[in-house]
Amino acid sequence: MNTLPRLGLGTFRLQDRAAIDSVANGLELGYRHIDTAQIYGNEAEVGQALAASGVTRGDVFVTTKIWTENLSACRLRASLEQSLIKLRTDHVDLALIHWPSPGGAVAVAESMDALLAAREAGLTRAVGVSNFPIARLREAITAVGADNIATNQVELHPFLQNRPLAAFMADAGIRLTAYMPLGHGKVTDDATIVRIAREHGATPARVALAWSMAKGHAVIPSSTQRANLESNLRARDLVLSSRDIAAIDALDRGERLVDPDFAPRWD
Which domain CATH number covers 45? Predict the structure, then answer.
């Protein structure tokens, strides 16, 4: 499987048995994209669930992300090889730079070149970035070309729509993957989204996911509840009207939920 699925299963903040069960349930329900990261501390649990699932490895798109301490050319490949051991696979489908190197300690070009070398070695099928604003994304494009950047994974939900970045990426032909697409659950309390959900006989979460996908974005919601996992997956079949989409578009308030002290300057 080489194409990034529209909807996948995120594992941020899932640890130990919760991570195993979420991935196991997700795969059983039909998820075929599992997203993890070195810093999540759950690659081994994700690998355990993948191995026990009975799903053919080639049918699952697996993403992991390289942590900031491993972005240099001398460390990136070895760290990815360790991730593969934990994930019980000989390759991932997508390897991302998790965050731009804090303070520019490692140049974007160095990390991108190292990622391409890992791809050439067969450790990953595709490469990309995460949490890159336009300025850093320009550097990545200059280094390796937009055609070699499968996605930029960023926080995006109805309350933080990242329109300048999304427009830049669309022009460059780079897919946007929305993490935290449910605004850490806040979409379930929004009156506009609740109203649209009621009109469609859907959940607010499903509406928010369908809105992101209608924009052309991939989404990676997470959940520990099987019922929620099943409901979220059904967002692929929910078609919103142009009026629905416009109403959700109007909810943008620049509400960023993930903003660590080492984050880049956002657009």
Answer: 3.20.20.100
- CA distances from residue 127 to 45, 153, 201, 202, 263 in whole angstroms, order as listed: 23, 11, 38, 35, 21
Asked, for residue 48, whether it belongs to a domain, the answer is: yes
Question: Which of 83, 82, 17, 80 has its CA nearest to residue 52?
Answer: 17
Kindly list the distances between the CA atom of residue 66 and the CA atoms of 4, 48, 84, 130, 225, in Å, as whole numbers in the listed order: 18, 20, 12, 10, 28
Q: Which residues are registered as beta bridge partners of 157?
A: 160
Residues marked as catalytic: 40
Per-residue pLDDT reduced to its tens digit, 106-143: 999 999 999 999 999 999 999 999 999 999 999 999 99
Question: What count of residues does the chain have?
Answer: 267
Tell me, what's the pLDDT at 169? 98
Q: Report the largest interatomic distance among the alpha carbons of the chain, rounded to a whole angstrom.
A: 54
Instruction: Give how many domains the chain has, as a whole number.
Output: 1
